[in-house]
């Protein structure tokens, strides 16, 4: 007789959870192993009605001796996903949105629609220079792509001509953060702009040529783009407030996410059902990283808070109880 994979107090719910994940097409082997570790850990706790209490969650979150941050985040992230599942099954569980990252903290700057309009209008007035003969074509597309697709600047600058399927409007991110590969659909207007760009600057270039290339046919550096961006912000009256307050190029990605959540909330779309799709689109390793944006969106657009509270209940309240941390970066 085969020994059950899960043998702890959450075993029946773990089996259902993993079965659902695999039925959706996921392999879910490594995640199942992490979930089994959590289930075994809970053998030392008193479990009632398949509920993950605050005490259990915080005990599981404690960093272990010589444990790497990425390992800790992985096992805590799996507990978070399981907690969401249990709550949906009628077993209210404590919900920790994400572990803080070490290092730099940055307060995201969410651009208004008017600020974006001013930025893009400024970009559309650029003229070529001897040092940068394609800047009037490169920058309007690059910054629209960062906002319109929510790309990290490193991902955009790593794109090659061959990574762009202009016919179908899809970008191929071959090496995203943590070397994750994904395909990113573009809007119709962005696809059109991309096609025009390819015709203008890539008619005779090889497939491996950087999509955005300098006069010497090399990749732009992130520092170069950051410096240019600060200049464009100054031109349209948006002050740069320093390293911790920005705005930074990466804030275009934050703005993309918050604007989408704002639109879903105002249109009555079930936000939580869209988060897994948004998470994949952004290249996040887990939905928990994307959930952080619910709080950020509610702080920027207070009228969204009531919508989120109504839809997510206690899970959303728990999100608000934690300090906002930068859970998504371009590093």
Automatic annotation (TrEMBL):
Classification via InterPro entries: DNA_brk_join_enz (IPR011010), Integrase-like_cat_sf (IPR013762), Integrase_catalytic (IPR002104), Tyrosine_recombinase_XerCD (IPR050090)
Signal peptide (UniProt feature, chain positions): none
Positions of the Tyr recombinase domain: 106-309
GO process terms (BP): DNA integration; DNA recombination
Record key words, sorted: DNA recombination, DNA-binding
Full protein name: Tyr recombinase domain-containing protein
Family of the protein in this entry: Belongs to the 'phage' integrase family.
Alphabetized GO MF terms: DNA binding
Superkingdom assignment: Bacteria
Pfam families attached to this UniProt entry: Phage_integrase
Species, as recorded: Desulfitobacterium hafniense (Desulfitobacterium frappieri)
């Amino acid at each position: 007789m085969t020994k059950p994979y899960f043998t702890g107090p959450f075993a029946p719910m773990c089996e259902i959870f993993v079965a659902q994940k695999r039925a959706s097409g996921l392999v879910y082997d490594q995640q199942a192993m992490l979930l089994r570790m959590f289930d075994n850990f809970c053998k030392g706790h008193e479990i009632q009605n398949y509920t993950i209490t605050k005490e259990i969650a915080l005990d599981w979150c404690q960093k272990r001796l010589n444990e790497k941050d990425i390992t800790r985040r992985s096992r805590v992230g799996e507990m978070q996903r399981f907690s969401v599942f249990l709550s949906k099954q009628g077993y209210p569980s404590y919900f920790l949105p994400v572990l803080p990252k070490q290092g730099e903290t940055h307060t995201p700057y969410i651009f208004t629609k008017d600020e974006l309009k001013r930025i893009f209008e400024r970009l559309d007035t650029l003229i070529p220079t001897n040092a940068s003969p394609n800047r009037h074509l490169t920058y309007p597309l690059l910054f629209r792509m960062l906002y319109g697709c929510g790309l990290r600047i490193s991902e955009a600058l790593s794109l090659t001509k061959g990574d762009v399927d202009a016919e179908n409007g899809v970008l191929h991110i071959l090496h995203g953060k943590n070397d994750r590969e994904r395909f990113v659909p573009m809007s119709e207007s962005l696809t059109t702009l991309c096609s025009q760009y390819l015709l203008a600057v890539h008619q005779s270039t090889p497939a491996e040529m950087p999509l955005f290339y300098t006069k010497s046919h090399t990749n732009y550096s992130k520092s170069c783009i950051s410096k240019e961006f600060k200049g464009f912000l100054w031109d349209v009256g948006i002050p740069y407030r320093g390293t911790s307050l920005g705005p930074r190029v990466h804030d275009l990605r934050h703005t993309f996410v918050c604007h989408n959540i704002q639109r879903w909330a105002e249109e009555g779309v079930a936000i939580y059902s869209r988060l897994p799709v948004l998470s994949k689109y952004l290249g996040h390793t887990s939905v928990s990283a994307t959930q952080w944006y619910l709080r950020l969106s509610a702080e920027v657009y207070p009228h969204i808070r009531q919508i989120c509270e109504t839809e997510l209940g206690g899970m959303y309240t728990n999100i608000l109880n934690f300090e906002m941390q930068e859970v998504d970066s371009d590093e």
